[in-house]
Amino acid sequence: MRLAALTGGYVGVVCSAQIGAQKIVNLPFTDRRAPGGTYLIGLALALIELAHHTAPTRREGWLNAQVMVACGFAASAILAAWIAAVDAMSPDDRTFGALADTWRIVAGSLAAFAVSETIDNGIGAWMRGRFPDAARVIVTNAISVPLDSLVFLSIAFGSLAFITGQIEAKYGATLVIGLPLVYLARRLVRT
Prior knowledge:
- By secondary structure, the chain is mainly α.
- It has one domain.
- Helices cover about 70% and strands about 5% of the residues.
- The protein is built from six helices and two strands.
- It has a two-stranded antiparallel ribbon.
- Helix 3 (about 60-90) runs antiparallel to helix 4 (about 100-125) and helix 4 runs antiparallel to helix 5 (about 135-155).
- It is globular and about 55 Å long.
């Protein structure tokens, strides 16, 4: 049940991030810009770390986290297909407009999932029980955030113009949202 709730939250965060990525936003306290869904990726990576504690062993925790990544992957593909289908339907005077370009963002996200979240999950599973939760979240994100940004921006926008802002926003979200979430939710996902 804990894994199901965590997976549902993860899928919601991932799909929301893809919709939010349709708009480039100015990051607070900096002169940087990034896709609007960027903040949620720091949260998504923290949720993956929580999944490691939904099973008694590192291997089973890794498998649970991979199930979450696969569910996010599938939900993203369904989101892109549905938006494309709705965009192809006969409109009245209100349409999705630029939202129909979501397929590029979803394709970038799917590729980023395959690379960054799988690596994040593997390193996090190895670190489980060997390092404090905070160290595990920070170390895994230090590796996965730049990879995720590189893959996502290359495919979704065909440019790395927003990479600095995206990395800063993801690290900020990790520290402000992800770490507190891991500490608060850790009790709920103990095996």
